[in-house]
Amino acid sequence: LPVQSAITHPRPGAAVPAGELTVKGYAWSGGGREVVRVDVSLDGGRTWRVARLTGERPVPGRAWAWALWELQAPVP
């Protein structure tokens, strides 16, 4: 399966103040394959940033759960 991902924070439609924002989410790839990278676009795909994977790393070939990620992003 292609990698699937979801943003869990902030909630859709949430008002966020200008400054630094932490965006969080999860990703999974299926078939026991590990997620090794998550790219996040906050402007409809014009630019992309690499998120930091958090939490424990799975044993190779045994990645049967989602991977948590987060990204620090500037908010104009």
From TrEMBL:
What's in the keyword line of the UniProt record?
Answer: Metal-binding, Molybdenum, Oxidoreductase
Q: Name one GO cellular component term.
A: mitochondrion
Q: Does the keyword Kinase apply?
A: no
**Cofactor(s) needed by this chain:** Mo-molybdopterin
* Domain named Moybdenum cofactor oxidoreductase dimerisation: residues: 1-75
Q: Keyword RNA-binding: yes or no?
A: no
One GO biological process term = sulfur compound metabolic process
Molecular function GO labels: heme binding; molybdenum ion binding; molybdopterin cofactor binding; sulfite oxidase activity
Q: What is this protein called?
A: SUOX oxidase
Tell me the organism. Herpetotheres cachinnans (Laughing falcon)
Gene encoding this chain? Suox
